[in-house]
């Protein structure tokens, strides 16, 4: 049984989950429309970027509607984001850009998408596990964003992180094309959530 001290925290987490869920449902409906929009009307890459921007606003709104959640930056990130956006907009700078992070809780993804500049979000893609495509709403959103799926070889104990090499070779062609066009690649190289960020897990494909 939950203690009297943990009960309020559990209620607040539930309220946030409901808020985020409702906003994601709206996001999913719009993303579904984006998926059925023909390329001749709106180019695929533009639809994917807009789907990412929409999720940026959905995640940011969920945080804004949850005043009990405080986001405190470790230092001034303004100059860092300005440098990143400047690199994206500098067509003469052909160096690829990668955004790499630790993955400690689920909130990592929400915070990154909600707090990063729109110019960065629009150009970014990341790796996700292919099993997420079967999830209601989230699968639609991931498809609309054009994210890169990782096909893990399933095993009963769920601890096998080896990948389908043939499927990943095809996906890598999409990743390479994205980078060559000036796209940003974001990923959590550990491939799964790590509750102890001081100790890195082995790097692998996907999240």
TrEMBL record:
UniProt key word Membrane: yes
Record-linked InterPro entries: Plipid/glycerol_acylTrfase (IPR002123)
Any Pfam family hit: Acyltransferase
A molecular function (GO) term: acyltransferase activity
Record domain Phospholipid/glycerol acyltransferase: where: 97-207
Taxonomic superkingdom: Eukaryota
Keywords assigned: Acyltransferase, Membrane, Transferase, Transmembrane, Transmembrane helix
TM region positions: 16-37, 49-69, 132-152
Name of the protein in its database record: Phosphate acyltransferase
């Amino acid at each position: 049984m939950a203690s009297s001290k943990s009960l309020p925290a559990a209620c607040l987490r539930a309220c946030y989950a409901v808020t985020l869920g409702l906003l994601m449902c709206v996001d999913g409906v719009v993303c579904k429309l984006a998926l059925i929009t023909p390329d001749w009307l709106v180019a695929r890459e533009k639809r994917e970027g807009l789907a990412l921007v929409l999720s940026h606003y959905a995640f940011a709104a969920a945080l804004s509607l949850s005043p009990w959640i405080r986001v405190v930056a470790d230092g001034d990130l303004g100059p860092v984001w300005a440098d990143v956006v400047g690199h994206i907009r500098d067509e003469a700078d052909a160096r690829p850009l990668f955004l790499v992070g630790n993955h400690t809780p689920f909130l990592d993804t929400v915070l990154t998408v909600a707090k990063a500049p729109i110019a960065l979000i629009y150009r970014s893609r990341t790796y996700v596990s292919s099993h997420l495509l079967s999830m209601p709403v989230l699968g639609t959103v991931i498809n609309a964003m054009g994210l890169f799926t990782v096909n893990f070889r399933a095993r009963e104990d769920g601890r096998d992180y080896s990948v389908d090499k043939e499927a990943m070779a095809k996906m890598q062609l999409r990743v390479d094309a994205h980078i060559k066009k000036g796209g940003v690649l974001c990923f959590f190289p550990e491939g799964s959530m790590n509750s102890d960020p001081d100790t890195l897990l082995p790097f692998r494909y996907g999240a």
